[in-house]
Amino acid sequence: MSKFKKKKSGDLPAISTASLPDIVFMLLFFFMVATTMRETTLMIQNELPFADQVEKLQKKDAVMYIYAGKPSARYQSQFGTEARIQLNDKFADLGDIKQFIIQEKESKREELQNKLTTALKVDQETNMGLVSDIKYELRKAEAYRINYTTRTGDAAQNMQ
Amino acid sequence: MAKRSAPEVNAGSMADIAFLLLIFFLVTTTIETDAGINRKLPPIEDETEPPQLKKKNIFKVLINQNNDILVETKGEENDMDVEEIRQAAIEFIDNGGQDCEYCQGDRSVKSSDNPIKAVVILQHVRETEYATYIAVQNELVAAYNTLRNREAQRLYGENFTTMEANFNDGGYEGNKELLEEKIKKIREMYPLKLSEADPKEVK
After folding, report:
1. Would you state the pLDDT for residue B76?
2. Structural domain contains residue A59
């Protein structure tokens, strides 16, 4: 009678995990497509302000990034809480911007060199004084096309 | 010889491998923000006499260190919230005091002559917050976009912002030269004249 006893055992059948790899692969592909590699490690807080009249940045390879904001918590003991500029992976001073622009320009392809855009990724709590200084340096370096990178959203959220 | 079937490969660890890859990508990548407000900076010029503008052709926005906004237009000064700037700017640009057939404003003598002469001046102090500045910039761009969209709709039955997006889109299949000409025409009707004064020092 053992034939019948076996069926009666109260154990639940194991849930098949055969489709688990498929699900995980699906997630993996989503993230591979929707995200980009991090190029610089941010050493500053970088909460961008909101705006809704935005244009998409064209041609990713013709963009130079300048970051500015307060140093993040782990760097505050060393660099203080005053807003600072970050170029590539380092904190920088205003005087470094011109050199940075020249270097970036040389590293790009020739046909792109006149079409370079500087994307300003500035934290929303930064004072305009610093931003004006950056803009003045950019004018000195003859990098006139700029883009204030923002998050897409209602601009009224900036005022809270 | 009897044909032996190949043993099945155990796929039990596939999920682990996939998880490993997934976590790697989660950690090393970011979702990029790649949109923003485009601006062109003016070149540095030698000290020249600033062109004399009539006061009625100026729309002046001042932001102070407490992020309060003051707007000077039509010979009045008003405190404004960010949301009010757009309407005020539209009224100013589109006023059409003289030589402007397509303007639909009040044609008041106190406000701008036409969109070509109208200049928006944005001034802030060093202590102004960046977020406020962007909010104001956004509203001013919105005012121009509203007017440009209106004219583009009237002339070409299409939104100006869509036309621009199409123009920048590499995969656009229409006639790009024609599109460029249309965009240029609209831009000439409502040129974006935004002047940014150097920040004032707070005394």
Report:
1. 77
2. yes
Across A5-150, the runs of DSSP E, i.e. the strands, are 36-37, 50-51, 55-56, 63-69, 84-87, 90-92, 117-122, 145-149
| Confidence category of residue B32, pLDDT binned at 50, 70, 90 | confident
Task: Note whether B72 and B62 are within 8 A (CB).
Answer: yes
- ipTM comes to 0.77
pLDDT exceeds cutoff 70 at B2: no
On average, the pLDDT of chain A sits at: 83
Q: Does residue A21 fall inside a structural domain?
A: no
CA distance B185 to B164: 12
Residue A136 lies in a domain: yes
Assign B20 a pLDDT band (cuts: 50, 70, 90). very high
- pTM for the full predicted model: 0.79
Is the pLDDT confidence value at A135 over 70? yes
Question: Taking CB atoms and an 8 Å limit, are B35 and A56 in contact across chains?
Answer: yes
For B40, the closest of A52, A129, A144 (CB atoms) is A144
Q: Please classify residue A125 by burial: count the beta carbons closer than 10 Å to its beta carbon, then call 0-12 exposed, 13-18 middle and 19+ buried.
A: middle
Q: What is the DSSP letter of A148?
A: E
Chain A hits for B130, Cβ within 8 Å: 49, 122-128, 131
Give the domains, in start order, of chain B with CATH numbers: 55-169+176-196 (3.30.420.270)
Total number of domains in chain A: 1
A76 part of a folded domain: yes
Q: Are A108 and A116 in contact (CB under 8 A)?
A: yes
Looking up tokens 């009040």 gives B106
How far CA B133 is from CA of A57, A127, B66, B178, in Å, comes to: 20, 10, 12, 35
CA dihedral B133, B137, B142, B145 (to 10 degrees): -170
Quickly state the pLDDT bin for B203 (edges 50, 70, 90). Answer: very low
Q: Do B133 and A128 touch (CB under 8 A)?
A: yes
**Contact partners, residue A45, CB within 8 Å, separation at least 6:** A69, A70, A71, A72, A123, A125
Residue A9 C-beta-side C-alpha neighbours within 13 Å:
7
Cβ–Cβ under 8 Å, residues A72 and A45: yes
pLDDT of residue A63: 85
The domain in which residue A106 lies consists of 50-151
